[in-house]
Model the fold of this input.
Amino acid sequence: MINDAERIYRSLKEELDFVTTYLDLEKLRFGEKLQYEIEIGEGVSQTEQVPKLVLHTFAENAIKHGIMPSEEGGVLKIRVNSEHDYLKLTIEDNGIGRARAEGHSTSTGKGLKITGEFYDILNQINKKPIKHLITDLYNESGDPAGTRVEVWVPKDQEQDKRYKL
Done:
């Protein structure tokens, strides 16, 4: 992390390696209560540049607020697909959902706020905007059944690679 401190972007491969290391550590900590899957879609180049911690931030939130409060634990799924001129990153959990997590969490909500502000700043220099959407998931009975975060990162951000913090 210290060696990466000045970088805003890193390759998708570096981000996937970072989040995989984090998830492996959490798996050691929580055992069978935490499962995860990572899928890379056809035609996705792992050399594409993504904002650093884009996967980690949402994976950490999913584990902390969605999966760990559930007695049976859950599954975190990360999918990366190519969609037109964007990489679509999906982070989905089958945890307790955001509405139920509000009652169990001591979270300040600053992580998501800071992430949104970070994307707003990047969008001032991006040729195309980074977009993200958070969706609450429900089971057939209408009960909360997890959260899906989708982040669209524009491909080929030559201009952005010049910027450092």
Summary: The domain at 9-162 is CATH 3.30.565.10 (Heat Shock Protein 90).
